[in-house]
Amino acid sequence: MTEITHQQAEIILRETLAKGREMGLKPLSVVVLDAGGHPKAFLREDGASPGRFEIARGKAYGAVMLGMGGRAQMARAEAQAYFMAAVNGAYGGKVIPVPGGLLVKDGDTVIGAVGVTGDTSDNDAEAGIAGIEAAGLTPEP
Amino acid sequence: MTEITHQQAEIILRETLAKGREMGLKPLSVVVLDAGGHPKAFLREDGASPGRFEIARGKAYGAVMLGMGGRAQMARAEAQAYFMAAVNGAYGGKVIPVPGGLLVKDGDTVIGAVGVTGDTSDNDAEAGIAGIEAAGLTPEP
Amino acid sequence: MTEITHQQAEIILRETLAKGREMGLKPLSVVVLDAGGHPKAFLREDGASPGRFEIARGKAYGAVMLGMGGRAQMARAEAQAYFMAAVNGAYGGKVIPVPGGLLVKDGDTVIGAVGVTGDTSDNDAEAGIAGIEAAGLTPEP
Amino acid sequence: MTEITHQQAEIILRETLAKGREMGLKPLSVVVLDAGGHPKAFLREDGASPGRFEIARGKAYGAVMLGMGGRAQMARAEAQAYFMAAVNGAYGGKVIPVPGGLLVKDGDTVIGAVGVTGDTSDNDAEAGIAGIEAAGLTPEP
């Protein structure tokens, strides 16, 4: 089984944060989850508010559990808010259905997900895409 | 180390309640949280309903955890209701995203938050701002 | 109905902390709950660890909900641990059954409870008793 | 302001894992929490079981919230099991009271905590101590 590695996760964290600094974003927090939705790596930059782990994980958790990126989740939430609310109840309230939640694929296989938070959702997603690509993997926003 | 002190918290409680009486508000409840969202001080005036601790804490908790005051949270909730609902799930249902939740800053550093409840949200916020300023600190509504 | 007042609560906080300082105790945290188990007032001294609200409330909450002080709860927990564990499940995990949880009586009527934490359970209780008596009320440890 | 930094957290992760490899330990997982108990950084080595984030955080969370290291918590749990069980209920079940939970001090000030899991509790603690010291900070086991 192809599983996201410790080394890939470290590259994703480092390069997502580097992209954020290059773009001039606010302090970011980045989580990498494995294909089961469990934390593999996390980093919160200085100056980010204390509750950022839950937001980053929420973006990535929904991606893994539903098999769809944050942008697709947001579209569903806007079309049918009660459905995503109900899904969230089923997942213990851990899902944040907005951009910045990114599936991580190795070829066609989902091997994990990344959640980025701190700036606008679109900027969060852009930084995360750069991080995933720097690790030689394929993001699905 | 810059951390909200016991003495600052007592001033904030006393002066927020004094402002509320001066404004002729209904009985108020006021909580002071530290920069990690943990209660430092609380007072509920006679005549306030019994569940006011949770409301006061909810206003202040979201402020600390997200790094934004209650007025900014309310704007986000009105623009994208499902997002704030999801955030609240991620924080165990402890967030009340309305005015009356105020970040407390010492210069540029967030050292805690204040939550006020009992009258209208706008009046709650006005009383809390007076309390924070009386302690020589800077409120962010 | 006799209900603990805002003013009595403030006296209890102030005098419990004064007693702690007189006894040379570690930094204390003190909560006052009303007769329904809901927070009326709380203060955490500088230097106390951040999680002290939950411990203080847990000591006082069990006292109010069960109508017995922390010392009596501890005796029950030591005689029949599974019973107090089950009670705690029924109360959402909010009970800490040790000394430092004190019923507050006005004559024969329970009007609230006090929870003190920070030093040994026995010292916590001694400080709380002094605070309740200073308010002209009767503690039940 | 004294707060654990992103850079200190990265040193702690890297050096704790390096110590684990030097000692020949099983795959480790390491979390760094800030002084409010909120995740700052986390890494889980390849081969560690998926649920290690919760164990690592549980060891560190109790340390921060109670202001005592895992070894002291374990002593209390062994002397008075129902007390630590009750404390855990009050903290939403997030406390794991065993060695490997380490307070992080800068001089006398608690600035965070580290949780290490994967090998025996004593080995976990030894690796974490090395990581904290490598960052120029003081561990309290």
TrEMBL record, chains A, B, C, D:
Pfam families linked: HbpS-like
UniProt xrefs under SUPFAM superfamilies: GlcG-like (SSF143744)
InterPro entries for the chain: GlcG_carb_metab_protein (IPR052517), PduO/GlcC-like (IPR005624), PduO/GlcC-like_sf (IPR038084)
Record PANTHER family: SLR1406 PROTEIN
Protein name: Heme-binding protein
